[in-house]
Amino acid sequence: EGPAYAFIGLGHLGGHLAASLVRNGFDVTVFDRDPAAVERLVALGASAVDSPAEAAARAGNAISCLPSPKVSETVLAGPGGLLEGLPAGGAWIEMSTNGRDEIVRLAALASAKGIETLECPVTGGVHLAAAGKITALVGGDGALYERHRPAIEAMCAKSFLMGPIGSAAVIKVITNMLAFIHLVAAGEALMLAKQGGLDLAQTYHAIVASSGNSFVHETESQLVLNGSYDIGFTMDLALKDLGFALRMGKDFGVPLDLAARVNAIFEQGKEAYGGSAWSTQIVKLLEDAVGT
Ligand code: NAD
Question: How does the average pLDDT of the chain come out, rounded?
């Protein structure tokens, strides 16, 4: 039997990741402030406790998947947080998407209490996460990665050790920047096809087989065309990650014209449909503008 894990943050993404751990036979102790999310995991065989500290003390190692660096800091270092429960030598595996500065700072908080951090943001979306086929981008010590690799591989089909803490944040923010640019581009393409009188199902397949295809077109255009938009990833999360990308551009001296434009479009999307709307609803801005 492998090591036990606390899992904090059982939302659209974390719920699937924690479920994969349970399904693969790990001893998982969960906490989320949403009781319904906890119940879903308990039904699958996880144990539930009343705080991150209790979960960490019971398991000895902790994983988190939370909506913002601010929440990650509370769950890690706030009252009743992971650092109150983790034993010396325990590990914190942070699967939320953070900016580089944020994860470096949070890892330093953990390190001051004798806890090692592995950053492990993931990419591929909730549908791949549900299938255990999401990709992990890892930053941190190589030996620590090896120690927790069985758990990472129980949740993710592929993992890439990128370098020290902060390096996974950089690649993760880059991949999301690309994904949001691709989403807006795919939306513009679909709208041109629609207004040009094309059959949209046929358009979808023609683009998949073309030089203009992208992972985002393949996996998200269908959600736009069928009107569900349900990608399990919100406008607020998109704006969080685009903010990290734009700050990285400034920090590294790289002009990011496309990302800046896409960020402005997502700000419009949030204003129009709210921060908890699915990120794919960004295409509705164009549909509304064209009046279809
Ligand atoms: P989510 O909002 O669906 O889930 C967050 C969960 O954290 C919720 O269940 C919420 O109740 C819980 N939570 C909030 N504050 C808490 C607290 N103080 N204590 C305990 N639990 C608390 O978000 P998500 O979509 O699952 O995303 C989580 C992270 O993963 C984000 O950093 C996001 O950028 C990243 N991510 C998401 C996806 C995706 O497709 N959804 C893909 C890759 C990365």
Answer: 97
